[in-house]
C-alpha cells in the first residue's frame, strides 16, 4: 500500500495546531476539588489558633491572666498575617536564587505577581499562601505558653515579630521551601520540625531566661478554667485535620490516610497519658487527657503523610508515655517554669515524632517507603540532623532576640504587676466580674 505524500503547507499547519495542545497538557491546571479542600484546611488551621489555642492556653493560666493570653493570641494572629503578606511569605517560599538553599527572595513581597489565576501546583497560590500563613501564625503563638503570666505585652509583640523573621521563616524555607534540609532528605510532612521543635525549644529558652513566676514551684498554680481548656483542646483536635491532611495540598488518598493516622495518633496519645496518670497518681485527670491528645497530635504531625495506621498507633502511644514523664520531670524535678509545658509536649513530641518518621516510613511497617538509595539508618540520621540543626538555630536565635528585646523594652513585668495580674496591668481589663 502506498502512502500519499501530504503537501508541505498541510504538514506545517498540523504542527502549528498541535503544539498548543501539547503545551496545554503540560501546563498546571486548577483542580476544583483540591482547591475546595485547601480552602477548608486553611480555615481549620486558623481555627486552631483562634479560638482553639487561645481557649486552651487561656484556661490553663490563673484568673488574673486569662485576657492577657487571649490578647497575645489575637495580636500575634494580626501581626503575623500582615508581615506574612508584606515579605515573610516571599522569603519562606520565594526563589532565593544563588542563596535559595538558605532563604527565599523578595520577588513576591506584598504578593507581587500573585493574582486570581496564579497557581501553585493545582491550587491557587493565594490559597497556598493563606494555608502557610496559618502555620506561621500558630507557631509563635505556641511559644507564648513558655513565658505566660510574666512577659510585657510590648516585649511579646517585638519578640514574636523578630522570632518569626529570624527563626520561623528560615527553618520553614529549609524544610518546605526547597532549602538545604529538604534537599538533604529530611521528612517533615506537616511541621514536626518547622512548628513543634522550633516552638518547643524557643519556649524552653524563654522560660529559662525570664525566670520562674513568683511563688513557683512552692505555690500551687492550677488552671483557673479547665472547661475552657478542654473546649480549646477539642477545637485543636478537629483543626489538626486541616493542619496535617491539608499538608497533602490535594484531596486524594494521601490526605485521607493522613487524616486517619492523625486521629489514631491523637487518640493513642490521650489514652496512654490518661493511663500513665492513673497508675502514677491514682486518678486520671481531665487536664491530663487534654494534654495527652495535644502530645499525640504534635508527635504524629511530622510522620502523618508518610506512615500507616500501625505506625501512628506506635508513635501516638510513645507520645503519651514519653511526654507525660518529660512534663513531670521538668516541673517536679528540674523546676523549670515552662508555664504551659510547651517544651515537654511540643518540643519533645516533635523531636520524637520526627525521628520515628525515619523508622515507620518503611514500607514493611506500613509506610510509604524510603526515597531511592536511602535505608532506615540513613533516614533516621537525616531526621536527627534536621532536629538538631533546628534546635540549635531556634535556641541560639531565641536567646539573642530576647537579649535585644530586654535591652530595648525590658521583657518581664515587675513584681507588683505580676502579683496584680497582666489583665489589669497590661490591658486595664479583667476577665471576670464576679
TrEMBL record:
Keyword tRNA-binding (UniProt)? no
List all membrane-crossing ranges.
34-57, 69-92, 127-148, 155-177, 189-211, 223-243, 255-274, 286-304, 310-330, 342-368, 380-402
The annotated topology with respect to the bilayer is: Multi-pass membrane protein
**Signal sequence, start to end:** 1-24
- Where found in the cell? Cell membrane; Membrane
The primary site where this protein sits is membrane
Ammonium transporter AmtB-like domain: residues covered: 36-432
Q: Name one GO molecular function term.
A: ammonium channel activity
Per UniProt, the keywords (alphabetical) are:
Ammonia transport, Membrane, Signal, Transmembrane, Transmembrane helix, Transport
This entry carries the following GO cellular component terms, namely: plasma membrane
Q: Which Pfam families match?
A: Ammonium_transp (PF00909)
PANTHER family the UniProt entry points to: AMMONIUM TRANSPORTER MEP2 (PTHR43029)
What NCBIfam families does its record include? amt
For this chain, the family text in UniProt reads:
Belongs to the ammonia transporter channel (TC 1.A.11.2) family.
* The protein's name: Ammonium transporter
